[in-house]
């Protein structure tokens, strides 16, 4: 198995963080991170996240050699099974056996289901037999026969009898279910970990065992667009597919707004939907964001514009059928009141009213940063409100790369930031939203010294696995023309350890030539990633990484400007 790569060779970062939650540290003694109390219940979302993590683990998600029966999960639990011809990885000698139950037990154990932590030799009811999961449910009163009409919940064990002869043949983990269909993640399905779907009336399904202590399940997700916060972000024409827009810088103080509308299999040719005309708009004075600011179900575009004399204007291009309305200034700071160059904007529905709000991390002198929010209302925005202040000497905004999304699934958009510490150390801080503002920021991931260089990071957000929680991603710049794409999948109480889901290889992709975007480009309810890539000779291409269970597909070029047709350095995507 190839070792998972982290942004510092030989750092051992991922292994260390995988053993437990990263330690909370202080920015200074004046800025303390909030420490949460673990919930007593087993989080169903955690069970699904563990299963998905194993599905995406290319080093152990199939038998090696193929079809041999050698698998990691039997070796993890049952050292007495035969090991001839089997590899050893991650400190585990692989073993040869049917392994669907070993996989399901591994998932439950690593998500905190207490009974799954008891070895069968010590009286544990869960064994290498699929039937043990039915026995578990019967013993604890959590068994539900298919015929009962029970609504399967994420994290349940689903038990099968392929021949309906009364003998249990197979077990998997429920990922999700609708009124008619149950979606699963199963070990030893075609000699690998695999996602499957079944009619809930399928006679092969015997029933379901719920893990003892599990929470009541995942609430219904808000209307989806891939943002993880319930707004429509960049679906500019309302067809359910995420589109891409960009402000293009022409000479002579002229800016054009172009839109690439998504279609089946890619994108349409970009269309110019607004042109400022000569000497009317400097693109370099513009910081754009996207969201549904008026609640009509169409993604709009907003921009903070930098005027001389420390004056900033907030302009919005509301979407309409076939394009956008003329931009309107909906807030004006007035001269001497706001320096746009000190502002890093974000967008999200921070109060849960269905309208996208705006936020800005503002850089004050003396290493002081404040978070201001413009809440959307009918016809515009409320006066910005100061909702967090680091205090002097506590936070350097220039070391901050902010993001937004509903990271905890409560229907409110949260804020996050990758913070650059000296010595090649990066931390992820989250401001979770609450009624009337935000909670004190909490550090939810720490790379450790020498493990992650934040200036080499270009972050993005979206719901990459479709569980209704906003996840985080980052394109990381390695030396030698190599780029890695890492994802931090959200879970109850924080994020899983970042996983490398794509690696360009040396000499194949220069991250500094990349401007990333996100959206559900193909309508499968998973957020995809995109990037405008800068080629020499005035050529730009749009590449997309479509999301799939456990990771992303290989990037595909979905638009190419051709030589001398588009200068990516003049492009600001939204």
From TrEMBL:
Tagged with keyword Zinc-finger: no
Domain of life: Bacteria
Pfam families linked to this entry: CHAP
Keywords assigned by UniProt, alphabetized: Signal
Residues making up the signal peptide according to the UniProt record: 1-32
Boundaries of every Peptidase C51 domain copy: 96-188
Protein name as it appears in the record: Putative secreted esterase
Organism: Nonomuraea gerenzanensis
């Amino acid at each position: 198995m190839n070792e998972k790569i982290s942004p510092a060779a030989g750092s051992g970062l991922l292994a260390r963080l995988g053993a437990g939650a990263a330690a909370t540290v202080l920015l200074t003694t004046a800025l303390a991170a909030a420490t949460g109390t673990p919930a007593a219940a087993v989080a169903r979302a955690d069970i699904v996240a563990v299963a998905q993590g194993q599905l995406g683990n290319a080093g152990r998600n199939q038998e090696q050699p193929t079809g041999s029966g050698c698998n990691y999960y039997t070796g993890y639990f049952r050292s007495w099974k035969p090991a001839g011809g089997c590899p050893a990885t991650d400190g585990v000698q692989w073993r040869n056996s049917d392994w669907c139950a070993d996989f399901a037990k591994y998932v439950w154990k690593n998500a905190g289901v207490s009974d799954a932590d008891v070895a069968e030799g010590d009286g544990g009811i869960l064994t290498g037999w699929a039937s043990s999961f039915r026995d578990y449910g019967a013993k604890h009163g959590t068994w539900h026969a298919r015929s009962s009409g029970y609504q399967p919940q994420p994290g349940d064990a689903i038990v099968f009898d392929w021949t309906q002869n009364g003998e249990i043949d197979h077990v998997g983990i429920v990922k999700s279910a609708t009124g008619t269909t149950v979606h699963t993640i199963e070990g030893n399905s075609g000699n690998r970990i695999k996602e499957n779907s079944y009619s809930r009336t399928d006679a092969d399904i015997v029933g379901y065992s719920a893990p003892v202590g599990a929470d009541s399940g995942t609430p219904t997700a808000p209307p989806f667009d891939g943002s993880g916060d319930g707004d429509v972000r960049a679906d500019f024409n309302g067809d359910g597919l995420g589109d891409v827009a960009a402000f293009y810088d022409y000479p002579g103080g002229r800016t054009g707004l172009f839109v690439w509308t998504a279609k089946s299999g890619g994108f349409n040719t970009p269309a110019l939907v607004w042109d400022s005309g000569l000497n009317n708009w400097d693109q370099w004075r513009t910081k754009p964001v996207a969201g549904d600011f008026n609640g009509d179900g169409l993604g709009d575009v907003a921009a903070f514009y930098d005027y001389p004399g420390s004056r900033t204007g907030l302009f919005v291009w509301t979407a309409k059928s076939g394009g956008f309305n003329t931009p309107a200034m909906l807030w004006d700071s007035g001269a001497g009141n706001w320096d746009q160059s000190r502002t890093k904007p974000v967008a999200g529905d921070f109060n849960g009213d269905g309208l996208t709000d705006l936020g800005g991390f503002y850089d004050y002198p003396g290493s002081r940063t404040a978070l201001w929010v413009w809440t959307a209302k009918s016809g515009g925005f409320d006066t910005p409100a100061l909702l967090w202040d680091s205090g002097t000497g506590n936070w350097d905004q220039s070391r901050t790369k902010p993001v937004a999304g509903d990271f905890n699934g409560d229907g409110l958009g949260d804020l996050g930031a990758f913070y650059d510490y000296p010595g090649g150390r990066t931390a992820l801080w989250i401001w979770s939203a609450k009624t009337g503002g935000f909670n004190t920021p909490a550090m939810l991931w720490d790379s450790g010294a020498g493990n992650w260089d934040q200036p080499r990071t270009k972050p993005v957000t979206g719901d990459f696995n479709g569980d209704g929680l906003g996840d985080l991603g980052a394109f990381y710049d390695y030396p030698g023309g190599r780029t890695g794409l890492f994802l931090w999948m959200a879970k109850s109480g924080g994020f899983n350890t970042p996983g490398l889901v794509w690696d360009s290889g040396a000499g194949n992709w220069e991250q500094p030539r990349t401007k990333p975007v996100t959206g559900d480009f193909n309508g499968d309810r998973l957020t995809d990633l995109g990037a405008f890539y800068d080629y020499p000779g005035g050529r730009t291409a749009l590449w997309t990484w479509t999301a799939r269970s456990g990771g992303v597909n290989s990037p595909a070029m979905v638009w190419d400007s051709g030589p001398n047709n588009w200068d990516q350095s003049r492009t600001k995507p939204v």
